[in-house]
């Protein structure tokens, strides 16, 4: 949600990909892709953003903390990032999502958005459930 130099962003993408592969992820057994090259992520985020109310997003603790740390100058990107996360999950009709405790509320938002969408337009998205990581 913060602007990055394009060259640094490109390097970070390559470094992250190398780290994922170094961890043993086998690209022959899974899909490994650059999300920004899949326009459906942003398109679904737009659609879901049009059915998500702002007060719900303003109640998320991550928004409150980051906005406070930015002198109440939070950006639209920061506010709508959880909707993009919901789109990332729902686009693939995910049923189980590994999350840490700090992301449970964002997954609950994805669940709420899916339920709202399904109620309005018919059963389309499964309701994703959390797989909590153990630390």
Question: Would you mind describing this structure in some detail?
Answer:
With 135 residues, this protein is mainly α. It folds into two domains: 1-32; 35-131, Rossmann fold (3-Layer(aba) Sandwich), CATH 3.40.50. The protein is 56% helix and 6% strand. The protein contains six helices and two strands; from the N terminus they run αααααβαβ. The longest helix is centred in the C-terminal third of the chain and has 18 residues, at 104-121.
Gist of the model:
This is tryptophan--tRNA ligase. The chain is built from 6 helices and 2 strands.
Secondary structure elements and their pairing?
Blueprint: H1 6-22, H2 39-49, H3 54-58, H4 61-69, H5 76-91, E1 96-99, H6 104-121, E2 129-132
Parallel strand pairs: 1-2
Helix pairs in contact: 2-5, 5-6
Largest sheet descriptor:
2 strands, parallel
How many helices? The count is 6
Under the CATH scheme, which architecture of the largest domain would be assigned?
3-Layer(aba) Sandwich
CATH domain class of the largest domain? Alpha Beta
| Low-confidence region ranges | none
Give the assembly state of these chains: single chain
List the helices and strands in order.
HHHHHEHE
Rounded average pLDDT? 91
How far apart, in Å, are the first and last alpha carbons?
Answer: 26 Å
According to CATH, what is the topology of the largest domain? Answer: Rossmann fold
CATH superfamily of the largest domain: HUPs
Rg is: 16 Å
- Helix content range: 55-70%
